[in-house]
Design goal:
With about 160 residues, the protein is of the alpha/beta class. It has a single domain (about 25-160), classed as Double Stranded RNA Binding Domain (2-Layer Sandwich), CATH 3.30.160.150. The chain has three helices and six strands; from the N terminus they run αββαββββα. Strands 1, 2, 3, 4, 5 and 6 form a six-stranded mixed β-sheet that branches. α2 (about 50-65) packs across α3. The protein is flat and about 60 Å long.
Length: about 160
């Protein structure tokens, strides 16, 4: 009798539960965005990296939010600067030779929300990707930047949608 009562209570409690799904940009009160070409202020950043990151960010936002790309009068304006582009050893072996190197990119991003000024922000975003020290940076740089670009783009969307 006791087990039937416990089952009845469990079924009753579980029937009141709901699962809700929402888009990642549920808190964005906007429909359009634009991305300016990011300035390359880091002296050792590859030529054209600002433009390629800007294009990557446009595609990333388009594929992960409901926002549409606007040529004029966007609701959200994204711009920024590549302020740091460095390679450092991160894993040194016993013979004092690096086993891993780390490529770190830091960007200062400015987001202007023309519909709600309180949601505008300027933040610095930093991400890295490690690679084997026996590899030449030039041979792995494209893959590393793909990884870093995705991480920074996700950070920008997270900040835009969570207002933190």
């Amino acid at each position: 009798m006791k087990s039937i009562l416990i089952i009845f209570i469990a079924v009753y409690l579980l029937s009141g539960c709901k699962i809700q799904y929402a888009m990642i940009d549920g808190s964005i009160d906007a429909s359009t965005f634009s991305v300016d070409i990011f300035e390359e202020q880091a002296s050792n950043a590859p030529a054209g990296y600002g433009a390629s990151f800007s294009n990557f960010l446009k595609d990333f936002v388009l594929s992960r939010t409901k926002l549409n790309l606007a040529v004029s009068d966007p609701d959200i304006e994204i711009s920024g600067k590549i302020t740091q582009y460095t390679t450092t050893p991160v894993s040194v072996q016993s013979d004092e030779v690096a086993a891993l190197n780390r490529l770190t990119v830091v960007m200062l991003v400015s987001v202007i929300n023309n519909k709600d000024e309180k949601q505008s922000f300027e933040s610095s975003f930093s991400q890295f990707s490690d690679y084997n020290a026996s590899q030449d940076l030039a041979s792995v740089e494209a893959g590393l930047l793909e990884d870093i670009n995705a991480k920074i783009s996700q950070d920008i969307i997270n900040k835009l949608t969570s207002n933190w």
